[in-house]
Design goal:
alpha+beta, globular, two-stranded antiparallel ribbon, 8 helices
C-alpha cells in the first residue's frame, strides 16, 4: 500500500517533518530551523519549495521568522484532533496519536447509557453500553479527555473492548469493522464549546471546585457502518487552552 505521506507535495512533506520534530520536543522552543538554502539542498528541492514549507509552518503558528536571524520554533500547545481526524490517522498509522502525543488512563466499563449517548447510538436510555476512556497528552499537558461509547453487542465479538487497557491489533473502529466485515461508511462530526462542569474538570485533572472560566472545545463523532448501524459515538473534551483546527486544499 502506498504510504499516504509520500503522495503529499514536497513542501508539505518538509513541513510535516519539522512539525513532528516540534511536537515531539526534539526541536524545542527557541530552536532555529535550517535556512531556505540549506533546506533546499538537504531535501533536493527548489528554494521556492523550501520557502513554501517554512511559510506553511508559520501559517500553522509553529514558527516565526526573525529578520536577520532565521526561523524560530515557538512554544505553543498543539490543537486537539477531532474523532474523524483520529480515525484517519488510525487508518494510516494504526494509532490515533498525533505527533508528540501519548495516551494513558485507559479505562473501560459496561455502564447504563446516558440519554444523549442513547440517542446517538439509537438505543434505549439506560441500556448497557461499553464506555472506553483515555487521556491524550503531549509535552504541554492534557490535549483532550476522550470517551468512546460502543454498543454492547460488539463487546461480545471483541472482549478486549470492555477491558481497561490499551487496545491491540488496531483501533476500536478497525477491530469492529474486521469482526463484522462491515467497513465504516460515514461519520457525523460536531464541534462546540462549553463551560466546564465539576465533572469535566475532574476528567481533565483540574480542581473540580474551581473549574476554569474559559470554555473548552467539545467534539463529537458518530461512526456508521455500511449497513447503517452506529458502531461508536466519541466525545472529546479539550484540555485548557486547546483549540481545534483543520486544513484542506482549495481547488481553483
Amino acid at each position: 500500500m502506498v504510504d499516504a505521506r509520500e503522495v503529499r507535495a514536497p513542501y508539505a512533506r518538509i513541513a510535516a517533518h519539522y512539525a513532528e520534530l516540534i511536537a515531539s520536543g526534539e526541536l524545542p522552543p527557541g530552536s532555529l530551523l535550517p535556512s531556505i538554502k540549506n533546506l533546499s539542498e538537504e531535501w533536493s528541492v527548489s528554494t521556492a519549495t523550501a520557502e513554501k514549507a517554512l511559510r506553511k509552518l508559520r501559517n500553522e503558528g509553529l514558527v516565526r521568522g526573525i529578520h536577520g536571524i532565521g526561523t524560530e520554533v515557538l512554544d505553543r500547545s498543539a490543537p486537539m484532533s477531532s474523532g474523524s481526524q483520529r480515525q484517519d490517522r488510525g487508518h494510516r498509522t494504526g494509532s490515533s496519536w498525533g505527533s508528540g502525543e501519548r495516551s494513558d488512563s485507559h479505562q473501560a466499563a459496561v455502564v447504563p447509557a446516558p440519554t444523549d449517548v442513547a440517542q446517538a447510538l439509537d438505543i434505549e436510555p439506560g441500556s448497557e453500553v461499553i464506555r472506553r476512556r483515555r487521556v491524550y497528552r503531549d509535552r504541554h499537558g492534557i490535549v483532550a479527555h476522550s470517551t468512546s461509547w460502543i454498543p454492547i453487542q460488539y463487546g461480545k465479538l471483541i472482549p478486549q473492548l470492555a477491558k481497561s487497557e490499551r487496545l491491540t491489533g488496531g483501533t476500536s473502529l478497525q477491530l469492529i469493522a474486521t469482526a463484522t466485515s462491515r467497513p465504516i461508511s460515514h461519520r457525523i462530526d460536531t464541534a462546540s464549546a462549553r463551560l466546564l462542569t465539576a465533572e469535566d474538570a475532574q476528567l481533565l485533572e483540574l480542581d473540580p471546585s474551581n473549574p476554569p472560566v474559559e470554555p473548552s472545545v467539545v467534539m463529537t463523532a458518530k461512526f456508521v457502518d455500511s449497513e447503517g448501524s452506529v458502531v461508536e459515538y466519541g466525545v472529546d473534551l479539550g484540555g485548557p487552552g486547546r483549540t481545534w483546527r483543520t486544513e484542506s486544499e482549495v481547488s481553483e
